[in-house]
Design brief:
By secondary structure, this protein is mostly helical. Helix content is about 60%, strand content about 5%. The chain is elongated.
């Protein structure tokens, strides 16, 4: 089991948002330029350029000859890890312990890049176990109702691979967490 967390790569909260912006723009437009990222994040082109150069040095972002940015394989993998962490945290906070949607969204965004792979895997296993049909009584006693169906995944790796982001979690997101 790989217990390396994204913090081992020194990803800051803002770096994660740059990766998300590139991911979102590439999916939406087929490309991501400095101006597009700046507009998406409501930042200046200069500050975005500096941040993207930093992400290039970390081999998380690639810039082609036309000045279009995309995620490297390493960057793409980080986005999937972080999105899966955010999704699990959001639903855990909202559905398992009952915080408001607003708090679940804000807090999952603040925590998403800090948890280790081991913790993400344990969250997945715990949440899948509690929500399985075999544990209906526990789910009923705890009054857990969730739209997140983890039972269709064999393991956390399968869950991570399909993460493109929960529409609620990515909707209207800027550089704010």
């Amino acid at each position: 089991m790989n217990t390396q967390s994204s913090t081992d790569n020194d990803l800051t909260h803002s770096m994660v948002h740059y990766l998300f912006a590139i991911h979102k723009l590439k999916d939406k437009n087929g490309y991501a330029r400095v101006t597009d990222v700046a507009k998406e994040m409501c930042l200046t082109k200069g500050s975005v350029s500096i941040a993207l150069n930093n992400l290039k040095k970390r081999e998380l972002v690639i810039e082609d000859e036309n000045k279009f940015f995309s995620l490297s394989e390493k960057g793409h993998q980080q986005v999937h890890y972080i999105l899966s962490s955010r999704t699990l945290l959001y639903y855990f906070l909202k559905d398992f312990i009952g915080v408001s949607q607003e708090s679940a969204h804000k807090d999952s965004c603040l925590i998403e890049h800090l948890i280790s792979n081991e913790t993400r895997e344990k969250f997945f296993d715990f949440m899948k176990n509690i929500t399985s049909d075999q544990n209906k009584q526990i789910k009923d006693v705890l009054k857990i109702k969730t739209d997140l169906d983890l039972n269709k995944f064999n393991n956390s790796t399968d869950f991570i691979e399909v993460q493109s982001g929960n529409s609620y979690l990515l909707h209207g997101e800027n550089n704010q967490g």
